[in-house]
Write a structure and sequence with these properties.
It is a single chain. The chain is of the alpha+beta class. The protein has helices at 9-20, 38-44, 47-50, 67-79, 91-103, 118-127, 178-189; strands at 109-113, 130-134, 136-139, 144-147. It folds into three domains: 9-87, no CATH class; 91-134, no CATH class; 147-213, Alpha-Beta Complex (Molybdopterin biosynthesis moea protein, domain 2), CATH 3.90.105. Helix content is 33%, strand content 8%. Helix 5 crosses helix 6 (118-127).
């Protein structure tokens, strides 16, 4: 039976909290705008404060604490066809750390772009994950930055033979082209095996040093 996505548990709980006029002895200190500076309230209005409520100590009666967020997460999981969803707080920084810890642990390696947010660096320190730094490139077609573009146009210093078909796609001394690199990356995604390069997952490609090409 399909879930009913008409309810909005968090929004409905916020509305109920405001109607009941509660005053919680917990953060935030503005106490539903009561403790905010009058000049700030005049500029921002009170609605911005009314939506600032702790889920753990605010939304829902004590007997139902936790059910609001739990039900909202269940509906989200159903909407995106996932087994579970978990709502995060503290902005995206906490979510970044959680995602890193979900895929790697201490002394395991993780590809990290050189343009990563500082929360990624703190996540590396927190988790003990060893970064494999990847230089980003600008993809004009997708209007986004991604890894692996700096090798294009450079002279290869190693052979790259994809299996299948087992025929070298790159030979030492050959000029690397973006179409060939794109072919190799898409092949890896499809299960291709690269036994030759120093980085079999193609995180990096060995090239002749600039000035010697």
């Amino acid at each position: 039976m399909a879930a009913d996505h008409t309810p909005a548990p968090v929004l409905e709980a916020l509305a109920a909290y405001g109607r009941e006029g509660r005053l919680a002895f917990t953060p935030p200190g503005h106490k539903q705008a009561r403790g905010a500076d009058p000049a700030v309230r005049e500029v921002l209005g009170d609605a911005v404060f009314h939506g600032d409520v702790l889920v753990t100590a605010g939304l829902g009666a004590p007997a139902h604490r936790g059910r609001v967020s739990r039900r909202a997460q269940e509906l989200m999981a159903d909407a995106v066809h996932a087994d579970h969803t978990f709502f995060s707080t503290c902005g995206s920084s906490l979510s970044v750390k959680a995602a890193m810890l979900a895929v790697a642990g201490p002394h395991e390696r993780l590809l990290i772009g050189r343009d990563a947010h500082k929360s990624v660096v703190s996540g590396l320190i927190l988790s003990g994950i060893e970064p494999v730094w990847v230089e980003p490139r600008w993809d004009a077609e997708r209007c986004s930055a991604g890894p692996g573009g700096r090798a294009a146009g450079r002279t290869a210093a190693e052979m790259i033979t994809p299996y299948p078909p087992g025929i070298p796609a790159v030979l030492p001394g050959e000029r690397l082209s973006e179409p060939v690199l794109r072919y190799l990356r898409s092949g890896l995604d499809a299960g291709m095996y690269l036994p030759d390069p120093s980085a079999p997952a193609l995180e990096t490609v060995r090239v002749v040093a600039e000035g010697e090409e």
